[in-house]
């Protein structure tokens, strides 16, 4: 689609996305805006988002945190939060969270940041208004992974939302004759815990009808967009 723009997120989320992109460039940290925000920007779904999710290249967390910290105001309860009781524990983390206010009013917005190889995968994102935004194929892979995680193997609101996003992504790719690039598909091999089709199908079997899709259509569309292997 040619009319992509960050503005679809709304002014506050769009401003925060640009802030994060600027800090990542300062830190020379390859990054990708992922999650529902990416699907909203690309016109796959319509939904309000209050939080953002970014992936950055492995071993770039400390550099990005250092670039962000000078721009946060403790008086506004803005902060970088990293798990761990000691400096060594914190330095070993591959994910962190920031809270930042955008604009003159409103609650702080949250950004979750995690290290992932997708930030080093050129076909996993494109530049939209100066921000590296995940492609629909990348988001399809991430939704597959989210659905397959063991803590989502039973019916839940989160699993249902992920299944709805999966269905929307599959139908979008089929409508625009897009396929998942090989380098994006290979990201499944980096998933921890290991991606298992058995977990994926167990969850899809429970939530598909509520997500407006059938198990058979999911498998057909996966094959149609280049995901040829759909069993362990």
UniProtKB/TrEMBL annotation:
Name listed for the protein in its UniProt record: Nucleotidyl transferase AbiEii/AbiGii toxin family protein
Entry-linked InterPro entries: AbiEii (IPR014942), NT_sf (IPR043519)
Organism annotation: Ganoderma sinense ZZ0214-1
Highest taxon in the source lineage: Eukaryota
